[in-house]
Structures are given as C-alpha cells and as structure tokens.
Design brief:
heterodimer, A: alpha/beta, Beta-Lactamase, Rossmann fold, Helicase, Ruva Protein, domain 3, 4 domains, 21 helices, 16 strands, about 40% helix, globular, B: alpha/beta, Nucleotidyltransferase, domain 5, 4 helices, about 30% helix
Chain lengths: ~475, ~120
C-alpha cells in the first residue's frame, strides 16, 4: 500500500527534523516572535530556545537587516519566500555574514501561521569572493585587456542587485559565462542558475519550457510541468538569444517582469516567482524594436543593466592569455606535455580575426593540441580554415609590450633553439605569470619606476597594475 | 557611576553598532542621581558610539550584541560592558543598579523581580 507523504510524516518529531538541518532554523509566529529553534540556531545566538520563547526574533538574531521588519515588509503580504544576505553578531561577538531564507508557514487549511527563517553562515564564502575579486580571473572569465578589465571590475555591481541584466556581444564572446559568473557572485548563488535558449524551441514548446504547463494543456501534456521560471525560484534565470523570443511570449515575459507572477500553460492558478532575470543576445535589439520584431517596452525592461562583451579581435593581448590557458587546459586533459607554440603559429593566431570569438579560439587550440605530436604547436597543427582566412595585410596584433624572456649572456638566439626571444614558452616560465611579471618589470624600467606611466605603457588601468604588483610581490 | 544603555524604543537595542538612541543615567550606590538623558545619535556607528561613551565618561554599558573589537576597546578603557541583554531598558536598569545584571540576560517582566 502506498503511503502518502502526509501519513508518513505523521508523528514525526518536528524538532528532530529541524535539528537534522545543517543550518540555523527558527520558527516564528505571525508577530515574528520565536516559537522554536534548532540546536544550530541556539549555538549561533547563544540563547537556548526555551529562554527566548515569545521574544521578538530581531532581539535574538541581532541581524542587519532587521529580519522582523523584512518579514513584515516583504514576506507577509507576498506570501513568497525571500532570500537575502546580511550579517549577525553571534554569541562570540563575531560579525558573521549570513544568508537568510524566510518562508511563510501555512496550516493545511491554507491559513498563515508563522514563518521559518533559515540561517546559513557564508562568511568564508564571502571572504573567498572578496579575495577572488582581486584576481583577474572571475569564475572562468579571463581578460587583462582594458575592455575586459572594465567588465570584471563591474561584475560585483552587476551581482549585487536584482535588476534585469542584458548581456550583448557577438557569438562566442562568453555571454553565458558572464551570466553564470554574475549569478555565482550574487546572493542568489545558493539557488539554481537556469539557462534557456529562446532560439532553440518552437513557440508552443518554448512557452511550456519557460512557464510550465498543467496536465492536458495540450496534446501530449500528460503531466504537470513546472517550467524554468519555477525551477529557478530564488535564483537566476538566463534567457539566451532573447532576440529570438516570439512576440506573443514577449508579452508574457513583460508581465512576469512587472508582476512577478504568471499563469502556466492551461492553468487558471497564478504562480508567484522570485527570480533574477539575465538575458543575452548577439542581435541588435534596438534595431529589432524599430523593425517591429521586438517590443519596445520589453527592451527597456530588460536593459536596466547592460554589459557588452567585446569581440576577441578587440581584446589585444588577451589572445595570448587565452592561448596559454587553453593549451594548458587541453594538454592537461589529454595527458600531453605541450610546452608552447612556434613563432609562426603564434603570429598566425594573432593575425586571425576570430569571427567565432573565444569559442572559436578554444576549438582551434583543442584541435591543435589533439593533432600536435610533439611539444610545440606549429602552423601545420592549426586547422586549415585558419590559413585560408588570415588577413595577411593586417599587422600582427602584439600586446602593449611583447614578452621578452631573454637569457643574459646569450648572443645567439639559436643557441638554445631560439627558445626565449622567439617563442611563447609556457614551460620555462610557470606560464602567463612569469611573462606578466617580466612585462611589468620591463615597463617599470622603461618609465623610471613611475607606476602610473607604467600602467599606461601596458595598456592597463592603474588599479590593475597595483593589484598585479602586489600579487607578484614586486613592491 | 555613569551608565549607558543602548535603546530601541523601550527595549535594549539588539545591536551596539546599529544603535541610534542611548540612555545615560548617573547613579550613586545603586540609586539614580539627577535626570536620565536620552541622546539621539546622528547615525548608527559602533565607532562613534564608543567615542560618545568615552566623552561622557561612562563606566558601564548595557547593550545587545557587540562586536569583539568594540568590546575589547571599551574594556581597554576600563569600561564594563554587559552585552547580549534582551528586554526592557527599565528592567535592565533596575538590575544593573542592583548589581545583578549578567551578560546574555533575557529579561521578562515577571522574572525581573525574582532576579532582584
């Protein structure tokens, strides 16, 4: 006999259940007063729940923001779950960064009976994030060029808010990566990151994919389906190729953005959602608005925050950085010991225009690593399509100061196979770091130690140079 | 002895660093002397509150949660801090004047008399 969930849970000791959860949990009545709490909550606050029964949770939790006020301003009327970050002062007088998840509690009859607040200590996570923001690699996004530095420095601002974010850029520039990076750095990182390609499905299937459906909504709908908005609850929904969203669904999306609720396909029951929306496109939405294929009101609602990822050909020295990264990645994956590229191969890759941007460069290097039998990738190991499409009239795109790892006392470059002056050798150095260190030292020498001028020489922002000098211990 | 209590309405404020109002009471041998003063602070700041405490020559502070840095600083200045107190400021004052207020005390009206 199949047991229902309800009857299986009957007789369950609720406190046992709460004590099994690895976060602080407190149950509140409708006035925000403490009814019960688990052991972890008691340990965090230093107050046994029996001592603080009936006390306002704000006095015990000592949080910023004030959780009780948050409940009554946001959760009370909405009835929707709320997740936010803040801090508390714990029993040890330490300020701990916390993620608070506040949910309304209803009786089986649907009457609101109180709230549950879950506390998760994310102090260590935020410390890691804080340290990581001093590094140029954020969640897999690499870039030292000024345009990428702007994006990386803007990332915490993009992550701190729930405003809709529109990411534009050519195909293969990393829009998906940026969307996920913003999510991982945001307060919603504990909740799902859901991605939907609006150009991948026909209209009816896309509506069901996004908003879900109830059984019988259409032929073939044999069961209820929650839809991606609901699956992303509390987290982030990334709609890529938003320019491909049909006009009828654009209206529905606009409603969700404005009202935070929608009707699943075939349902008469409204669903509320708390989701941060990020969209991506390589199309010119403004032109589409003029052409009548994209709603103007939706365009403005999506374009509250905007991040534009530059094409790889606009990123200068990042090509070398990415080559270094992908060579290490793929040779590691394949168990090969590829040490670098020949001069000729490097020059070809620097001349190439990359219509497919970073994704294309990645594919090229993956191909080259696979076919290269030796330690050095040469021109012959690059896809033939590269040779056909190199614009030979263009000068080789060099970084602000080309890396020069020259061994002192060497008169003949060929004495060691011309390794240092001719080739990007990632084994002699530990990789990009050594190349970068010598670039910095070279620039500083050239400008007599003036850091501002050195930053200009390198094409970097001053703060970028300061961070790297600190990182490499070059003070 | 001068006593400072951090307030939120009539209660001890939950956090020292988010306090925007304080009560300063002069006492002598367990009795209030003169008129207690309520001071509204320009903005919540643990550092500014510490400066006020020093300036007013407070000997004892009653508050809710306080960070270690402020707690240690006041201790270094020979100021006693009774923290993590929950309850009405009036109850906390009664107990502190009687020398019976402890750190972490949860004051419920009916129990305060028993504590005295």
């Amino acid at each position: 006999m199949k047991q229902s969930v309800g009857s299986a849970l009957k007789g369950l000791d609720m406190l046992d259940l709460l004590n099994g959860v690895p976060h602080g949990i407190v149950l509140l009545d409708n006035e925000g007063r403490i009814v019960s709490a688990n052991r972890i909550f008691e340990a965090i606050t230093g107050h046994p729940s029996v001592d603080v029964f009936g006390v306002g949770c704000d006095f015990v939790l000592r949080s910023n923001p004030d959780i009780k006020r948050t409940i009554f301003e946001n959760v009370f009327d909405d009835g929707a779950m709320l997740s936010l970050e803040g801090d508390i002062i714990n029993v040890n007088r330490k300020k701990a960064v916390m993620r608070f998840s506040v949910s309304p509690l209803n009786s089986q009859a649907g009457k609101k009976i109180g709230y549950m607040v879950a506390l998760e200590d994310i102090t260590a996570l935020r410390e890691l994030d804080r340290q990581r923001h001093g590094v140029d690699e954020v969640k897999g996004m690499l870039g030292h060029s000024p345009k990428m530095q702007e994006i990386l420095e803007f990332m915490p601002i993009l992550a701190r808010t729930d405003a809709t974010l529109l990411i534009t850029g050519e195909t293969g520039t990393g829009k998906d990566l940026l969307a996920e990076a913003v999510h991982m750095v945001s307060k919603r990182s504990k909740y799902p990151f859901v991605k939907v390609n609006c150009g991948a499905l026909p209209e009816t299937l896309l509506e069901s994919e996004l908003f879900g459906h109830v059984r019988g909504a259409y032929t073939g709908a044999h069961a209820d389906k929650p839809g991606m908005f609901r699956l992303a609850q509390g987290g982030t929904l990334f709609l890529t190729e938003i320019g491909d969203l049909p006009l009828s669904l654009q209206v529905k999306l606009l409603t969700v953005i404005d009202d935070r609720e929608f009707y699943p396909l075939g349902s008469s029951k409204k669903i509320r959602v708390d989701v941060r929306l990020i969209t991506g496109t390589n199309r010119d939405l403004r032109q589409m608005v003029k052409d009548g294929t994209f709603r103007e009101d939706l365009y403005y609602r999506l374009n509250v925050l905007r991040a534009h990822l530059p094409a790889l050909r606009e990123r200068g020295e990042d090509v070398l950085l990415l080559i270094d990264h992908f060579v290490k990645l793929f040779s590691g994956n394949l168990g090969k010991s590829i040490k670098g590229l020949t001069t000729a191969a490097t020059e070809e890759l620097l001349r190439y225009q990359y219509p497919g941007n970073v994704r294309e460069l990645r594919n090229i290097i993956e191909y080259a690593v696979n076919v290269c039998p030796g330690e050095r990738i040469g021109s012959s190991h690059l896809p033939t399509s590269i040779h056909a499409n190199i614009i030979t009239a263009l000068p080789v795109r060099k970084p602000a100061s080309a890396p020069q790892i020259v061994q002192q006392g060497e008169d003949d470059d060929n004495a060691h196979g011309g390794r240092f002056a001719d080739e990007i050798d990632i084994s002699q150095a530990t990789g990009w770091s050594d190349i970068e260190k010598s670039k910095i030292l070279g620039a500083l020498l050239k400008v007599g130690g003036n850091r501002s001028r050195a930053a200009k020489e390198l094409g970097w922002g001053r703060s970028t140079l300061w961070r790297k000098i600190k990182r490499y211990g070059l003070e | 002895m001068k006593i400072l209590l951090t307030l939120r309405d009539n209660d001890i404020a939950p956090r020292f660093d988010l306090t925007s109002e304080v009560l300063i009471v002069d006492s002598d041998h367990g009795n209030v002397v003169g008129n207690p003063r309520n001071i509204l602070l320009p903005g919540p700041s643990g550092d500014e509150l510490c400066s006020l405490i020093i300036k007013e020559e407070i000997s004892l502070v009653v508050c809710g949660g306080i960070e270690e840095a402020h707690f240690q600083y006041l201790g270094w200045k020979k100021i006693t801090v009774v923290d993590r107190v929950i309850g009405l400021a009036a109850d906390a004052l009664r107990l502190v004047l009687a020398g019976r207020l402890k750190t972490g005390a949860v004051l419920r009206g009916s129990q305060v008399d028993d504590m005295l």
